[in-house]
Amino acid sequence: MLGKREGVDVFDMENPIREGKGTMADPYQVPSYFDHRYVGCRGEEEGEGDHKPYWMRVEIDKPGRCWECGSVFALKYLGSPEHDHH
């Protein structure tokens, strides 16, 4: 609620994932520096989407599939983030 009040899109709903086709053979690629990530699906339509967001956890070697529209999401592991401690 604080983000919304400040005008911040905390769930990054304005930048949909576009890498992949959303099928089992070519799932949407969800980038992450960790072994899992939560992703919300709003459907395949441009703009507002065609259903309310369905949130799921996507893990390495365990894709997620939207129960509403069937879109498939797979984790694109980017490796551990580098920690530069001084």
Automatic annotation (TrEMBL):
GO terms for molecular function: metal ion binding. SUPFAM superfamilies: Rubredoxin-like. One of its GO terms (cellular component) is respiratory chain complex IV. It holds the Pfam family COX5B. Signal peptide: none annotated. One of its GO terms (biological process) is mitochondrial electron transport, cytochrome c to oxygen. Keywords: Metal-binding, Zinc. Zn(2+) binds at C41, H51, C66, C69. It comes from the Eukaryota. This is Uncharacterized protein.
